[in-house]
Amino acid sequence: MKKIDGGVTAAKGFSAASTAAGIKYKDRMDMAMIYSEKPCKAAGTFTTNIVKAAPVKWDQEVVAGSPYAQAIVVNAGIANACTGAEGYGYCMETAKAAAETLQIPENAVLVASTGVIGMQLPMDRITAGIRAMAPKLSDTLEGGTAASKAIMTTDTVNKEVAVEFSVGGKTVTIGGMCKGSGMIHPNMCTMLSFVTTDLAISKELLTEALREDIKDTYNMISVDGDTSTNDTVLLLANGMAENPEITEKNEDYEAFVKALNIINETLAKKMAGDGEGCTALFEVKIVGAETKEQAVTLAKSVITSSLTKAAIFGHDANWGRILCAMGYSGAQFDPESVDLYFESAAGKLQIIENGVALPYSEEEATKILSEPEVTATADIKMGPCSATAWGCDLTFDYVKINADYRS
């Protein structure tokens, strides 16, 4: 198993395109299309926010009820959330336009939107964008990369990854792209992730693999504690690797699960590390937990603590904020048994032992916390379980970005 260059076009049969439709942005690409030359098994996970955007509702129906999916149309700038029946109707219009252009069924088209909540889509621009993209569909690395850039909103970098592995003597490829920078606190942001693979696998196992993996990947990141109306992860498998179809949980299934985890964890960390205004990816590991649930609760409590995030921004080893966040998480543990470490490319330093501060160099701690990727590890000494969560620091720029986001 190895990482390779690429994203959603890495797997056989998948192509992508992008265009500047002028939906909200006037100076950049803002629409993307992903297409498979063969019908795909489709799986998806979606926001648990009660307020769900129209594309989420449309995709839930397609994933659950359609025999297959073959295309995804994405726009940036307008979220098509809180738009009522009109907004849902625009999802239908988008699917119809794509179906007519690509010569596939309407219920084989998935749609996604990201951007400002409450605005209606300019359908003349959406349909024109679809017609513009179809002839430009490309299976090249460049085509996939351009698509990953077109779906960005406040993201500062595009996000894509691909992996190759072997199943039944066949080379299988899985690749993905995502966007997400603010309103990131998945519970399955505006977080969108699209993963494609040429693996042959049953829809049931494809769905189970995705639903299980998001628990340790997308659901373990947080930028600002806000769960979006539009969170969507879509996974398409077209079977063009021609491996024996995976219909049971065997070694081939486990290989796919491992590859899917690499894709999803990489994309999740890219989003956390590109949080709005952030300067550092903040990783929190809880080890020595009695249960996985306990470890997850503690880790997520720390990465969502505004005070802890601010301390990371200030490169300040204010470990009391971490213990405090663990203490109000709702998980039970003995604070007088906790060991805490800070670690980065600049080194590793133990800060507390059994809940009490150790003598340490503030200068060394600041050096460690000044790196672009910082890890805090808390050992609570209760058992064999662990969990890792990812977030980012909280900066002045986060407030600036979100104070005038609509304008």
From TrEMBL:
Cellular-component GO terms for this entry: cytoplasm
Biological processes, Gene Ontology terms: L-arginine biosynthetic process; ornithine biosynthetic process
Site (Involved in the stabilization of negative charge on the oxyanion by the formation of the oxyanion hole): T114, G115
InterPro entries in the record: Arg_biosynth_ArgJ (IPR002813), ArgJ-like_dom_sf (IPR016117), ArgJ_beta_C (IPR042195)
Listed Pfam families: ArgJ
Keyword Transferase: yes
GO molecular function: L-glutamate N-acetyltransferase activity; L-glutamate N-acetyltransferase activity, acting on acetyl-L-ornithine as donor
Origin superkingdom: Bacteria
EC number per UniProt: 2.3.1.35, 2.3.1.1
Subunit structure: Heterotetramer of two alpha and two beta chains.
Family membership noted in the UniProt record: Belongs to the ArgJ family.
Protein name: Arginine biosynthesis bifunctional protein ArgJ
